[in-house]
Amino acid sequence: MKSAFRNAVALRTLPHYHCINPHFHSLPRFSVAAVSSPPSSLVSPSKPETFRFLRRSSPLRVRYSSMTGGETDAPTSMEKQFEDFRVKLDEAGSLRERIRAVVNEIESITRLMHASLLHVHQSRPLSEVLEKPKAQVDGLKELYGRLAEVLCECPGEYYRFHNDWRSETQTVVSLLAFMHWLETGKLLMHTEAEEKLGMNQAEFALDIEDYLIGLCFLSNEMPRYVVNQVLAGNYDCPRKVLRFLTDLHAAFRMLNLRNDFLRKKFDSLKYDLKRVEEVYYDMKIRHLANGDSAEDNGTQGQS
């Protein structure tokens, strides 16, 4: 018991760096200087120069210099590109303003023509109603000629600016077609509309869809015209309009129309035809149509 206690005290009093290995002092000793400095035979005297040469010709330095050179050149090319864009947009904007100036004059003339044609619903003489609108046709032709001159400055870009005068042209076609039908009872053909407006050039022609939409606008005016003509005592008008709209509807049926604005206007043509059919049906059942009245007079004479 006492010997064990003495051993514990002896171990406690040993220095903290004393190793418990009993053979510690017999191990070989190494010099710190010998370990820290490698032998001169293992290190080549030319290797530091090699390291210095590789550091100078490092690909990272070359890549960084190329990147910095690209960054200095990039803003120059970018600014040049956007400067070209600015010039082109300014030219297109000035050209569009000139087009809109001509289109505004076309729109003012179409308003005058439409206001004059509204008198046809008041049972005025046809020659008196058509006098003022027909006088405006030459002015429209002159304006479309000016529009063609503006578009000649940018050949091949007809449809780029087409939307600037598209709706006005559709209205013009509907008015010309209505005037032509009132005079002749026939449809205004596409070539005739081009001739009236001076749009028979290779680079400036009347778009087919604009012509067709204009005809649909014409059909929208027919039901009101029929009702007012019947009220004025023209009982033969529903039959004529019905025959015209039926032929026009059958002609539109030949077209493969997509789900666009033209298809929607074609649907409105069907509704206009239905309204005219209803008016004509009312005339028939009341025996007010000219054909029915003539037949009735013939049967009464025979009796």
From TrEMBL:
CDD domains hit by this protein: Translin (cd14819)
Pfam families: Translin
Protein name: Translin
Localization (cell): Cytoplasm; Nucleus
Keyword line: Cytoplasm, DNA-binding, Nucleus, RNA-binding
InterPro entries on file: Translin (IPR033956), Translin_C (IPR016069), Translin_fam (IPR002848), Translin_N (IPR016068), Translin_sf (IPR036081)
Single GO MF descriptor: RNA binding
Superkingdom as given in the UniProt entry: Eukaryota
Gene3D superfamilies reported for this sequence: Translin, domain 1, Translin, domain 2
GO terms under cellular component: cytoplasm; nucleus
Family membership noted in the UniProt record: Belongs to the translin family.
SUPFAM superfamilies, alphabetized: Translin
Any one GO biological process: RNA metabolic process
The keyword DNA-binding is annotated on this UniProt entry: yes
Source species of the chain: Citrus unshiu
RNA-binding as UniProt keyword: yes
